[in-house]
Amino acid sequence: MKSFVIKTLINAAAIWVAAWIVDGIDISGKDTWQHKTITVLAVAVIFGVVNWLIKPVVKLFSLPLFILTLGLITFVINALMLWLTSWASDKLDLDFHVTGFWPALLGSLIISLVSWGLHLALDDKD
């Protein structure tokens, strides 16, 4: 349980940094600190669920592309997972939007780097 909470908080921080840096990723709605924090935490949970349920299936079906591109297709899959998170957030009336593929690609790179760095800094082993 502790690991899940730490990973969700790390994802929330990484999503917040990506929304701050990338022009096409937006956490809109009320401008209060509390509303945006709750939105980012909810989006982090959705992002975690999408990566846990859907990403392994997509990776399995794209295995030939992994071999062909020497693993670079991972960046595209991560971008699609972020875009799918944006779509699911929209369906749940959360104020998180990714406006296109290129912002999703850049955002997924930033999220990967920030979450990797935070995982190194915070040892999340139970």
Task: Spell out the blueprint of helices and strands.
Elements: H1 2-21, E1 25-27, H2 33-53, H3 55-61, H4 63-69, H5 73-91, E2 96-98, H6 101-121
Features:
5% strand; single chain; globular; 126 residues; two-stranded antiparallel ribbon; 2 strands; mainly alpha
Amino- and carboxy-terminal Cα gap? 8 Å
Largest sheet: 2 strands, antiparallel
Helix fraction by DSSP (H/I, runs of at least 4): over 70%
Order of neighbouring strands in the sheet with most strands: 1-2
Structural class: mainly alpha
Count of folded domains? 1
Average pLDDT level = 90
- Mind telling me the C-alpha Rg? 14 Å
Number of helices: 6
User: Helix and strand string, N-terminal first?
Assistant: HEHHHHEH
Strand content range: under 5%
Looking at the structure, what is the overall shape?
Answer: globular
- Low-confidence parts: none
Beta strands, count:
2
Provide a compact summary of the structure.
With 126 residues, this protein is mainly alpha-helical.
